[in-house]
Amino acid sequence: PFTKTYSIDSRYFHPDNARRIEAMRNRIAALDLEPELHAVVLTSLLEASDRVDSTTGVQMAYLKSWAPRALKPIALRLPNMLPHPEGRPCRAFNLDALDAAHGLSADIAYLDPPYNQHSYLGNYHVWETLVRWDHPETYGIACKRIDCKERKSEFNSKVKIEHAMRRVIDAIDAKTLIVSFNDEGYLSREQIESMLEPLGTVAVIDHDHPRYVGCKIGIHNQQGQKVGRVGRVRNTEHFFIAGQGAEMFIETQQAAAIAG
Prior knowledge:
This protein is α+β, with helices and mostly antiparallel strands. It has ten helices and six strands.
């Protein structure tokens, strides 16, 4: 099913690589590995698949003609891994953001929420399927998982995002909170600063960078014809720092200015 869905019904992977990906994923499932080793092997397959896909970076669509990298044979590599801290377990959670915020305490918390109508599930649905290996029903030209229609986040709603963001920020127990948000998002810089003010000092770092690579390709209709014009080619990522970390950042900036 994987090969047919993602290399014949759609063109995310060249058929040769799709068959290899499917065979390796079936083998991983059959090995019944320890959870940590299973995660390492699966990460290796995900990263290898990403190196030979035929997209512009997200899976809302695929390229009409094969990307050069899609014609290369897939090759597994050992993924980069963080050293295990002595005496402290590493934990990963698959939770709703609000549930995680209520249940965890940390020195530093980092939030990188969706900022518009495009969900992470919809943008990376092939990886979701490769991890779950549940062979879901799909729909549309992009062969998205059917649950992309059902698993909706309040962060992807222009009406609901402000309330959702405020609830998560208010629930977090952290000495320093860092939030990343794009200037094309549903919330303004001022709105987010207002949410963070109860945590104390707030500092903002702005990073200018090229927009998503799809803007270079242009806007196309369902027939693949180029239509319309892209309005902008660059955007700004805001990094908000609130709490103790913001105070340290400002002190460092002031010291650097004096030294300079």
